[in-house]
Amino acid sequence: MLKTENLTVGYANSEVLTDVNLNVHKNEILCIIGPNGAGKSTLLKTIATYLTPKKGAVYINSSKIHNLKPSQLAKEMAVVLTDRINPANMTGYDVISIGRHPYTGLLGRLSKKDKEIIMHSAKLVNATKLLEKNFFEMSDGERQKIMIARALAQEPEILILDEPTSFLDANHKIELTLLLRKLSKKNIAIIVTLHDIELALRIADKMALVKDNKILAYGFPEDIMTTETVNYLYGLTEANYNEQIGYFELKNNYNQELTSEINLEVNSEVNSDLGLNKTGSEFDTNDVLLPKKVFITCGGGTGAKALRYFKKNGYDITVGILHENDIDYAISKTMEVNIISEKSFSNISGETFENAKKQLLNCDMFVYSNFPVGEINQKNNELVEFAKSQDIKIIKFDGSIDSLQNL
Ligand SMILES: Nc1ncnc2c1ncn2[C@@H]1O[C@H](COP(=O)(O)OP(=O)(O)OP(=O)(O)O)[C@@H](O)[C@H]1O
């Protein structure tokens, strides 16, 4: 339905993206993602004919899109950009009715059918309550809905949206992305840029990743959104993308530079809140402060919240004993913390158990969750008993961060 062929987009003195070859069919959503300034909006604006291609072409049903008359194009494509518009003294209904302009006659009078389509468009985006409301008295999220309803009133075959979720709260983001999913099944092809990759992954049929002046990867999101690609896409250094979960975790790169910065900035009391141990008896800003070491025994997802809590507070984490197919293992691995692990579905070996005990004794505190116990991880119960027999601070994590507060 729409395709770009060897397309180069950019401005008078710059080429922003070169050799872009994408296509999107009806009933499909193509999501474009990438870091700030990568060229997503420039690409969308070129597809929407607001910019002229520097090379190559965009085709809509085999016609060059830049050769179509605006009135003809308006019946095929509708565009919702992020630019905030403030139409003077217009209601939601008035704004949506702008979408009917390509179809109304010279006088712009709305027919019965036009009015029905306006009402239907408002209904589709769940905005019928906003029809009488003044557009500039609406919240950002309400305006976004009206702008999408306006685009739908054009009855386009292709809908282009630049960052449609940027002003929306979590619930409205999900509502909007589900709406796009629903619309895409009504014979519409959708091209959308999103910063929220978690949502993009869940609604996109195809994804184009933009970086280094080109399309870095293009295809099914499930295939192309690998840890390595997404880490590279955003140039991540202090977090990792987890391809199973489809999101990021902070990683264990507590470095000397960060430690020194904290050393200079905070007093010893705050350091203990940050999970730092003072090495000298007298506090001195030149002391090297080391992260406190915590050993976490968990499993089956019961450790996820504790892992994130300790990670963001700068603790040096050892976790174990986890089976390699455990969700807590997947999270810990993404964080790059020290993991004592056992092969999936195998009993914990004596050797692994002894290693865990040794590493536990090297920690400042021991935290264990209400992990599920079966035959193969029985030894984790023994590990808890072993910790209790040692002179080490022990906390039972009951799932609430409050239970960790008196560490
Ligand atoms: N009107 C313009 N004239 C010249 N250069 C521009 C213009 N608009 C954007 N650029 C440049 O083009 C590049 C790509 O910008 P673009 O807005 O397409 O990126 P983006 O991926 O949409 O970024 P963001 O995620 O921050 O919205 C940037 O280097 C930007 O400075």
From TrEMBL:
Q: What sequence ranges are listed for the domain ABC transporter?
A: 2-237
Q: Does the keyword Transport apply?
A: yes
Q: Known SMART domains for this protein?
A: AAA
Q: Please name the Gene3D superfamilies in this protein's record.
A: P-loop containing nucleotide triphosphate hydrolases
Keywords recorded for this protein, A-Z = ATP-binding, Nucleotide-binding, Transport
InterPro entries recorded for this chain?
Answer: AAA+_ATPase, ABC_transporter-like_ATP-bd, Metal_Ion_Import_ABC, P-loop_NTPase
One matching Pfam family, short form? ABC_tran
Q: Which PROSITE patterns match?
A: ABC_TRANSPORTER_2
Question: Keyword Nucleotide-binding on this protein?
Answer: yes
A molecular-function term among this protein's GO annotations: ATP binding
- Superkingdom per UniProt: Archaea
Protein's recorded name: Iron complex transport system ATP-binding protein
Upper lineage is: Archaea, Methanobacteriati, Methanobacteriota, Methanomada group, Methanococci
